[in-house]
Specification:
Helices cover about 35% and strands about 25% of the residues. The chain has 9 helices and 10 strands. The two termini are about 35 Å apart. It binds adenosine-5'-diphosphate (ADP) and magnesium ion. Adenosine-5'-diphosphate (ADP) binds near residues 11, 14, 37 and 198.
Length: about 250
């Protein structure tokens, strides 16, 4: 379970996240949706502490971290939270000079100090899970965008994070390649992977999210089950946004 309490994020004078409180139950998929610039990416980056919230608190499993303006957060505390997360980016961000399997093994070997053989076994298992076993030794540049993203998902899952964070995982892909990534994420969701996904792909959100958080201008406009938000949202603003699906 992840709990975000009263998260605020400022960049200089700009308040980019305003008093965000969200609970993410274990084994569920939460979609962060809303217009561009609403704060989806920043909120995701606050969960893995690529951005340090200005104030508020984050609980991830047994770790709780509170943020106080002007007070530095210790590196050890950041690492305790960050190590429980895996991140998938819009532009895949595979290491270009490493093959698919080396990308998946990298963190296990360099950060977690696993023996290479054990890391290779784990990476093979994950590449199989995402349907990429046939491309183990391929270079990223030779893979389609959908294939690169599937390798990136395997890499993010390698250290068995408590939560998988995905920032616009299908936005760089055309519909066909998008579909293969949605299939993989859907399969992970069915297996009970906890995920938080920022997306303006409402097709993706409606297919696999259990819960939806609608963010606009740094504030939560509405939050609820995906079924409710996609079929009977309460707020006019959410209704207008959802009506763009069809
Ligand atoms: P979304 O992902 O929903 O499109 P973002 O989280 O990327 O929204 O951005 C929310 C707001 O925060 C935007 O106004 C953006 O310009 C601002 N922002 C994001 N990162 C920074 C930064 N590093 N410095 C200053 N402003 C930022
Ligand atoms: Mg974004």
């Amino acid at each position: 379970m992840i709990e975000l309490s009263n998260i605020e994020k400022r960049f200089g004078d700009a308040v980019v996240l305003k008093d965000i409180s969200v609970r993410i139950p274990e084994g569920s998929v939460t979609a962060l949706v809303g217009p561009s610039g609403g704060g989806k990416s920043t909120l995701l980056r606050c969960i893995n502490l690529l951005e340090i919230p200005t104030s508020g608190a984050i609980r991830l499993g047994e770790e709780t971290l509170s943020f106080v303006p002007g007070k530095r957060t210790s590196w050890q505390a950041i690492q305790k939270i960050r190590r429980q997360t895996g991140m998938v980016f819009q532009n895949f961000q595979l290491f270009p000079h490493q093959t698919a399997i080396e990308n998946v093994m990298e963190g296990l070997v360099t950060v977690l100090k696993w023996p290479r053989e054990r890391a290779r076994e784990r990476a093979t298992e994950l590449l199989t899970k995402v349907g990429m076993a046939h491309k183990t030794d391929a270079w990223p540049a030779t893979l389609s965008g959908g294939q690169q993203q599937r390798v990136a998902i395997a890499r993010a899952l390698a250290p068995s994070p408590r939560v998988l964070l995905c920032d616009e995982p299908t936005s760089a892909l055309d519909p066909e390649l998008s579909a293969e990534v949605i299939d993989v994420l859907g399969q992970l969701a069915r297996e009970g992977t906890t995920m938080v996904m920022a997306t303006h792909d409402l097709r993706l959100a409606s297919k696999i999210a259990n819960d939806v958080v609608f963010l606009e201008a740094g504030s939560v406009v509405e939050t609820g089950s995906a079924r409710t938000i996609f079929t009977a949202p309460e707020r006019e603003r959410t209704k207008r946004f959802i009506s763009t699906i069809n």
